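Case study.
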Amino acid sequence: MGMETESQFHVLAVDDSLFDRKMIERLLQKSSCQVTTVDSGSKALEFLGLRVDDEDPNVLSTSPHIHQEVEINLIITDYCMPGMTGYDLLKKVKESAAFKSIPVVIMSSENVPARISRCLEEGAEEFFLKPVKLADLTKLKPHMMKTKLKKESEKPAKEEESEVSKPEIEEEEEAVIEILPLHQELESEQLETMVSSSSSNKRKAMEEVISTDRSRPKYNDITTSV
Amino acid sequence: MNTIVVAQLQRQFQDYMVSLYQQGYLDNQFTELRKLQDEGSPDFVAEVVSLFFDDCAKLINDMSISLERPDHVDFKQVDSGVHQLKGSSSSVGARRVKNVCIAFKECCDVQNREGCLRCLQQVDYEYKMLKTKLQDLFNLEQQILQAGGTIPQVDIN
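After joint prediction, the assembly is written out as follows.
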């Protein structure tokens, strides 16, 4: 118990309008996504775990209390917001080493080509014109899938400024070493079940052991190499 | 369950819905909104629509204050209000309200106070009209449910 359902995507939605937050939240839920909504860019950064320096808002540092339990697969933000605009938020996310891989989508009620191209150039994956429709959200899945697959393949090779990654690598190497002795134990177990089972499976099990036995060297001949 | 009563109510509901589209009160976005309602969120449309009407009342009130004194109009505030109203009416599918907002924005852009006041009056009228229409629609829905029937899917072409 307590296992996380890794199959569901978690989206962080940013909009200063309560009405729009309610809309995007329902749209995302209906698209089978988990949603967290915040009403400003700075709250979004806080949620991600990026601490904004009070003195100089251009200085971002990674908070020691990163929300590691909450993995965000996508950020969808309104463009026009007081204070930090969606564009500003996009820039900050893409400038941070820890979060630049998170896909960002911008929403706007205004169709301004210059605005759209500027956002896409800065690294936004999509630009949605409001009102956003259910059909628009189907475009999000491929972007979110990319990060999930990327994360899984990148695990041992990750270069991070944070200190978390180092112990992770060591643990994995140890796990690999342990597999080999287990392998030997498994084979003796198979022989035991073959002897004790009284069903018709016995013959099959016997046949299997015999066939593998031919191709495999005997126990005392196995040399474990790391 | 009186199937004849349910069928009559369902027919009424369908006809009323279609008329709202035909008369331009609602557009396709309202259909999109209904798609988001399901067993998990059975009151979604009513909630969103209610939020929208609350927004309308507040924004209209704020804008009327900004437009009150002829020598001291805060067009920036009015523009912001119109922008919000246009956005939410567009998201809800409130077609007539949205169209007034488009005209309203144009008056604001050229700082036409008289024009703005006319648009303000019109937007106030339109949202209140839509509010009563949708209330009638929701009442029909309730009647259908209470009679044991289901809300029909209405096809708007």
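Observations recorded in class. The first strand of chain A starts at residue 9 and ends at 14. DSSP finds eight helices and seven strands in chain A. We will return to this complex in the next lecture.
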